[in-house]
Amino acid sequence: MRRLRFAPVATCYVVVVVMLTITGRLSLPYADLAMFVAVVLTMPAGLLSPLLALVPGHFGWYALPLLAVLNAFVVRLLIRVLPRDPVARDVENRLHSALVSTRLKVTPMMHAGSRRERSLLLRDVPIAYPQLVGVYHDLWRDSGLRVRELPEPLALQAYDGEGYAFSLRAGPGVFGDAVLTVAPPAARRWGFAAGLAAGGVPCVVAALSTAYLALLLTGCGALVGGLACLTAPRTRAFGRGLLLGGVPALVVLLLYGSA
Predict the structure, then answer these.
(1) Is the dihedral of CA 53, 54, 60, 63 positive or negative?
(2) Where are the transmembrane segments (predicted)?
(3) Residues 6+ positions from 143 with CB-CB distance below 8 Å
């Protein structure tokens, strides 16, 4: 997957925080909410914002934009330090093993696939495609994979004990001889469902009660907790559910702001 460049993304991020901060300083219906969102967007560096009040003549309105600049570098460091998604790493390792297992001299090229699967375009294959299918069929069967051969068009599918899917299909015309793909197991939905329940139930209750303090606690808690969960690969599904569950409380908070 192609990574976004740091400089333009960080610049857009700081500009958004600046606009929200300026909106929060104006006498507008959504001023308080805009300021709160600006503080949330500067996390985790935004945890230092209360300390700025201890400094005589502290930065004032542009404190949050400065924290946003600091936060961009903090998040960049965290992305490099935090562990990679173990599923993506396992997919890449299996694809490499499948590539070298035949000991055939081919020219592998990256091939576009879905978000989590990885594919290689195999060019300069020294044997015909049907023979290549037979080679992989025997290799995967001897390795204990559940192999399935598709006759029309000729392709191969296999699954290992952990649910990872391997496939081999004909290449796209003159651009390659075969496409080798490894996909991760089907995603488990319990993490997303648990996050949705954890965030949605209290937020819906708070939205129905229309108590401002309850809305603030549940909505902001779901927002901050969801963003925190997105930093770790194993909790991202829970974090997405938590963010979605916090929508009712945040919507009612918006209505409060407009009133």
Answers:
(1) negative
(2) 6-26, 33-53, 59-79, 190-207, 213-230, 237-256
(3) 160
Average pLDDT in the 95-103 region?
Answer: 87
Q: Do strands 178-183 and 118-123 pair parallel, antiparallel, or not at all (unpaired)?
A: antiparallel
Minimal CA–CA distance to 119: which of 149, 95, 139? 95
Identify the burial level of 219 via C-beta atoms within 10 angstroms of its C-beta, where 0-12 means exposed, 13-18 middle and 19 or more buried.
buried
Q: What is the pLDDT of residues 201-253, one digit of tens each?
A: 887 787 777 777 777 778 777 877 877 777 666 677 788 888 888 877 767 76
Is the pLDDT confidence value at 1 over 50?
no
Q: Is the dihedral of CA 105, 110, 114, 116 positive or negative?
A: positive
What are the residue boundaries of the structural domains of the chain, listed by start? 1-81, 86-183, 188-259
Rounded CA separation 95/99 (Å) = 6
Distance CA 243, CA 241 (A): 5
